[in-house]
# Entry
Amino acid sequence: MAVKTIDDMFLSELQDIYHAEKQLTRALPKMAKAASSSDLKQAFESHLEETKGQIERLEKVFELLDKRSRGKKCEAMEGLVEEAKEQMEEIQDPDVLDCALVVAAQKVEHYEIAGYGSLHALAKALGQSEIADLLAETLSEEKAADEKLNKIATSSVNKKAMKKAA
Ligand code: ZN
Ligand code: FE
Ligand code: FE
Ligand code: FE
# Structure
């Protein structure tokens, strides 16, 4: 699709994040499986469920725009997922791997926060208030997911890995 107008650009960015979320529904179960900390495992599992809801929300957005739900390959998410995969293959120590999984997951959340933050602002600027509200809901879930990962890292996962380094 040639991007000429702001509407085209908005749609193209929606397709990008839709594809990014689809990739995450495949990556998060692997990350949950690789995590040793039960809190971290649970965080990935619950964010997987949330992600499925986010995909449905995007499908609602496409519907409101009268467009077909369609993804456009998100190269950035592909790279972030690939980095997580590398860590899972290379890191043997389970506590160190948990730390690395938090790093990888927070990079993902920050990418999503940037995407939904911009899309939310664009939807408002375009006068699409219903779409803006849907995007705001997902944006707050992504922020909460990031915050939860922060808490897991600082309260347990990081400390556990540091203990071993001493
Ligand atoms: Zn996501
Ligand atoms: Fe998401
Ligand atoms: Fe992207
Ligand atoms: Fe997320």
Notes: The two ends are 55 Å apart (CA to CA). The pocket of zinc ion (ligand 1) is lined by residues 21, 24, 51, 112 (CB under 6 Å). Helices lie at 6-34, 38-64, 75-90, 94-125, 129-165.
